[in-house]
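TA notes, week 10

Several of you asked for a full example with nothing omitted. So below is the full record: structure tokens for the whole chain, then the designed sequence directly under it. When grading your own attempts, check the secondary structure regions first.
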């Protein structure tokens, strides 16, 4: 017999003596799991007294929070349980586990008043109430449930079959909306549905009960069935569909469903198989835009021409997420395929997936490739035209994210159909540091085809994205910017003002495609011969009054002639507005993570000359220029 089994046979006083004897624990190699068995063998009163001896529990028995929680759940009063939570400083998860054992009154109080509990924890706590108590809670706390997104069906789903039956018998008196009742009926356990006499029920109840759900309670949608799509109206919360592989017929029917259920969830997955979600409304808006791009692909166009048009269209539609790397960045929004198109914002793997999805629609084979910090595309077995009249077939690399800014401002995409050797050169910044953004020797060793600059210009000229000589429209923008710089060579304040007006005229939406606009401001408009500054910072801040901390582009300039100048991009007026430093500091603030990177110093608080810090893996593409050429 093991030593702990012998100890369990002793009386409580002897067990307590052993529990306090650390030398005994060590001698007999009793770990805290063994000690827990001994504790659990104590009579209830002895166990409770022992739990309040924190020195024993933590320093001698070394019980973890999970074990302490299991003991605390057995305490007779809420007051004692709260004391354990407080004395041991239990993590929120373990506090929530204990709250589930509170009295009904205390549970409800916690749900209503404890803002640190998330909505899932609140729902789980409410599901421990009996059916009558749940009915009362829903009836008396209607506004609370609405404002906290607590949906009645989520509570009822957690009940056992018997409690579900009791709840259904009373749910007409709770004051629920018809769609809330239908959600509950859809999510009932199958054995409960079988007991319901549907003969005299309203039709909308019958259709809800007839719907099948999968193992996680999502309605199974069969677009090939004869079910009336109107049956799904109001059940948006229970619909989640992967729409990446739909046929054209399924897509058309699904878009009708999106009209009926605009907030249903449309999911897509990336290489990691993590799922991301767009709404039905976002799906329809994105698919309509995709269709408009596809309609421009003429039947006679080669695959290379189609890639050029699609890559260009994505650059004009999407900008790199301006809040990336901040404390409010939403990972799911920036990687949800259709949401990216609808919102106009994404990050590298999401943007690359958008392009892959569109290329697939055009019959072009591509593969998502990842480095340690970046994601882009490998085009497989594609034929490219060369300026010498030759056509070559092979594998090449396309980086949609790094081409965004170039396409937005009608420039030459510098990361279009390159060999692995060539695109790796682009990973090296001006200081010679290799950021390894495209480093993946295993997956890219076969990417040997490289479209030289002359051939690229010819390709884009063939689809009207460059002129007949292969010049991209950005050259005219650069020439106009230089002309302004000459006219106002001796008036930097007016020079800046006119440069900003040119930006606004060229790209009216510049305040909403911040990342691409920041690139062109740094590389074109504020990089002219007569605009010499001690410091020029183009970045993002947020308005202090905005709880969502949405990013706003700003420009800070410091020079001996101008002093300190501040400008912010107004999304309503579509212009860069000058603002006094005092007002700027009163209205705006830097993101916490940006401050952390700068050791807590805001750009205008540091008198050191600005040295550009390039983070290539987060870039939407630098517009590089040589004298007389587009950048």
């Amino acid at each position: 017999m093991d030593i702990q089994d012998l100890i369990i046979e002793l009386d409580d006083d002897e067990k307590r003596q052993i529990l306090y004897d650390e030398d005994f624990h060590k001698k007999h190699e009793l770990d805290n799991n063994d000690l827990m068995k001994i504790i659990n063998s104590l009579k209830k009163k002895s166990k409770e007294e022992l739990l309040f001896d924190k020195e024993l529990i933590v320093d001698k028995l070394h019980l973890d929070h999970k074990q302490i929680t299991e003991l605390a759940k057995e305490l007779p009063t809420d007051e004692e349980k709260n004391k354990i939570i407080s004395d041991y400083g239990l993590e929120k998860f373990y506090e929530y586990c204990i709250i589930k054992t509170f009295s009904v009154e205390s549970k409800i109080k916690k749900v209503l008043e404890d803002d640190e509990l998330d909505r899932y924890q609140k729902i789980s706590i409410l599901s421990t109430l009996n059916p009558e108590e749940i009915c009362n809670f829903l009836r008396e706390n209607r506004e609370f449930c609405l404002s906290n997104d607590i949906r009645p069906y989520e509570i009822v789903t957690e009940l056992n079959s018997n409690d579900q039956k009791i709840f259904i018998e009373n749910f007409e008196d709770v004051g629920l909306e018809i769609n809330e009742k239908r959600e509950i009926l859809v999510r009932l356990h199958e054995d409960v549905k079988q007991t319901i006499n549907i003969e005299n029920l309203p039709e909308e109840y019958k259709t809800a009960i007839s719907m099948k759900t999968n193992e996680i309670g999502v309605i199974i949608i069969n677009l090939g069935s004869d079910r009336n799509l109107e049956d799904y109206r109001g059940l948006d919360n229970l619909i989640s569909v992967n729409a990446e592989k739909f046929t054209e017929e399924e897509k058309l029917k699904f878009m009708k469903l999106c009209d009926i259920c605009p907030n249903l969830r449309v999911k897509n997955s990336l290489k990691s198989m993590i799922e991301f979600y767009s709404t039905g409304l976002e799906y329809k808006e994105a698919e309509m835009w995709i269709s408009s791009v596809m309609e421009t692909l003429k039947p006679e166009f080669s695959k290379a021409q189609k890639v050029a048009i699609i890559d260009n269209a994505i650059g004009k539609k999407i900008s790199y997420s301006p809040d990336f790397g901040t404390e409010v960045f939403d990972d799911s929004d920036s990687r949800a395929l259709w949401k990216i198109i609808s919102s106009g914002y994404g990050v590298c793997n999401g943007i690359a997936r958008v392009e892959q999805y569109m290329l697939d629609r055009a019959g072009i084979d591509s593969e998502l490739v990842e480095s340690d910090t970046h994601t882009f595309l490998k085009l497989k077995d594609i034929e490219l035209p060369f300026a010498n009249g030759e056509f070559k077939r092979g594998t090449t690399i396309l980086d949609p994210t790094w081409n965004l800014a170039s396409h937005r401002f009608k420039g030459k995409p510098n990361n279009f159909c390159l060999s692995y050797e060539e695109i790796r050169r682009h990973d090296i910044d001006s200081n010679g540091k290799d950021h390894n953004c495209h480093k993946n020797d295993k997956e890219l060793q076969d990417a040997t085809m490289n479209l030289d600059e002359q051939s690229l210009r010819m390709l884009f000229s063939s689809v009207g994205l460059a002129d007949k000589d292969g010049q991209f429209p950005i050259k005219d923008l650069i020439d106009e910017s230089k002309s302004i710089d000459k006219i106002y060579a001796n008036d930097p304040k007016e020079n800046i003002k006119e440069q900003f007006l040119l930006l606004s005229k060229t790209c009216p939406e510049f305040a909403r495609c911040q990342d691409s606009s920041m690139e062109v401001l740094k590389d074109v408009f504020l990089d002219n011969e007569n605009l010499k500054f001690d410091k020029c910072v183009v970045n993002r801040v947020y308005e202090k009054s905005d709880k969502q901390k949405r990013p706003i582009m700003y420009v800070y300039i410091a020079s001996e002639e101008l002093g300190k100048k501040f400008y912010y991009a107004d999304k309503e007026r579509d212009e860069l507005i000058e603002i006094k430093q005092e007002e700027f500091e009163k209205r705006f603030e830097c993101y916490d993570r940006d401050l952390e990177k700068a050791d807590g110093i805001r750009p205008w608080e540091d008198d050191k000359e600005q040295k550009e810090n390039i983070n290539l893996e987060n870039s939407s593409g630098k517009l590089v220029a040589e004298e007389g050429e587009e950048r």
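The chain is about 45% helix and 10% strand. Use that as a sanity check on your answer.
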